[in-house]
Specification:
GNAT family N-acetyltransferase; Aminopeptidase; 27% strand; 13-stranded mixed β-sheet; alpha+beta; 2 domains; BioF2-like_GNAT_dom; Acyl_CoA_acyltransferase; 13 strands
């Protein structure tokens, strides 16, 4: 077994096709974030710094590619390509392939590899996780009506509530109008403005102050490839924009990415109405899953009928970088085990904020 490491933008067409073929072998890998096009889009958006976005290619003795892992390497530490904008990581491989992570680090010339949304069944890195979370999925492979019937049978009334709110808004405001794969730049710009307002109001980092994030989002909004790109979905109440989502599209999965709504329509839950419209629009098309991502939100739990677990953590060789990370995790785990209320969450929040800033810069 041999490991080649190349810059993402130097990936050959043959390797790109092989990568996509490996994704198709396992439904769990059907995510736009695990596509070669994601790694290349990130590298392009990051400009001169895009040379740090690399792909480790694991080959057998005959030179055939068995697996691909995209990362960004900086100051001896590897992290997910496109973090903090990347919602999944995994070794995209043939089934049952595992790689010695020590060999990965050596090939990447890194002391440590961090991950935050590694698929829990990844044979190479997931066992080094320090925690986990659920990613919520809506599977509509049997069609929207079958999905809705299943939700009703399961005793979940979210779709009934959405229908009531839709009738209410149509009585009080005006007809609802849904647009899939919109090319409206005005609505796209409004989404970004609303997201920035939301980040400011909640005391979070404004991701869009970082130039490469803006370039990446712009590029994916405009991209219309059949098996990769963005998709702008909008909902109007009468003539007024009520909710807008920019999702990423893979071969058969739409992944919820950037979502926002008009605060004046809060009482009608326009974001939920838009999710329902998207699910209905998937009938008869190539997409069978709407991935809502992680986050323990009620609407995700109620809409989803499937889930997959992701883990966060790191793997490191003996080094200063690994020692620092291990110490930080030690403090975090001790704090989270103590009955300190919100105070126990502070080390974890600090680590996530630091990782976000590392990814942006």
């Amino acid at each position: 077994m041999k490991i080649d490491v190349i810059q993402a933008l130097q990936l050959s067409p043959e390797d790109g096709q092989r990568w996509i073929a490996l994704q198709a072998l396992q439904p769990r890998l059907d995510s736009p974030f695990l596509s070669p096009e994601w790694a290349k889009a990130v590298a392009t958006a990051q400009g001169e710094k895009g040379e740090r976005v690399k792909v480790a290619i694991i080959r057998d003795d005959d030179g055939h590619a068995l697996a691909y892992l995209p990362v960004r390497v900086k100051a001896g530490v590897a992290m997910p390509a496109g973090a903090p904008m990347c919602d999944y990581q995994a070794l995209v491989s043939t089934p049952d392939v595992a790689v010695d992570p020590r060999r990965l680090l050596a090939a990447l010339k890194a002391q440590r590899l961090d991950f935050c949304h590694m698929l829990a069944d990844d044979e190479t890195l997931a066992r080094h996780g320090r925690g986990q979370a659920d990613s919520w999925i809506v599977d509509v492979s049997a069609g929207y009506d079958a999905y809705a019937a299943d939700r009703k049978t399961s005793g979940v009334g979210v779709l009934k509530d959405i229908d009531k709110k839709r009738r209410k808004v149509e009585r009080e405001v005006g007809p609802t109008r849904f647009t899939a794969m919109s090319d409206s730049r005005v609505d796209f710009d409004q989404l970004i403005a609303w997201k920035r307002e939301q980040l400011l109001a909640t005391g979070q980092t404004d991701l869009f102050k970082t130039d490469w994030v803006g370039r990446l989002v712009d590029d994916l909004f405009a991209r219309r490839d059949a098996d990769f790109g963005g998709g702008l979905y909008t909902l109007h109440f009468g003539d007024e924009l009520a909710a807008v989502h920019l999702h990423l599209r893979g071969a058969h999965t739409i992944h919820g990415w950037l979502i926002a709504h008009n605060a004046k329509f809060d009482r009608y839950s326009p974001g939920l109405l838009l999710f329902q419209d998207i699910l209905k629009s998937m009938d008869g098309g190539p997409y069978t899953r709407l991935d809502l991502g992680t986050g323990d939100y009620r609407f995700k739990r109620e809409l989803s009928n499937a889930r997959q677990t992701v883990v966060f953590g790191f793997y490191g060789a003996p080094s200063p970088a690994t020692f620092v990370r291990s110490a930080a995790w030690g403090v975090r785990q001790v704090a989270e085990a103590l009955p300190l209320g919100r105070m126990s969450q502070l080390p974890g929040k600090a680590m996530r904020r630091i990782d976000l800033l590392r990814g942006l810069h």
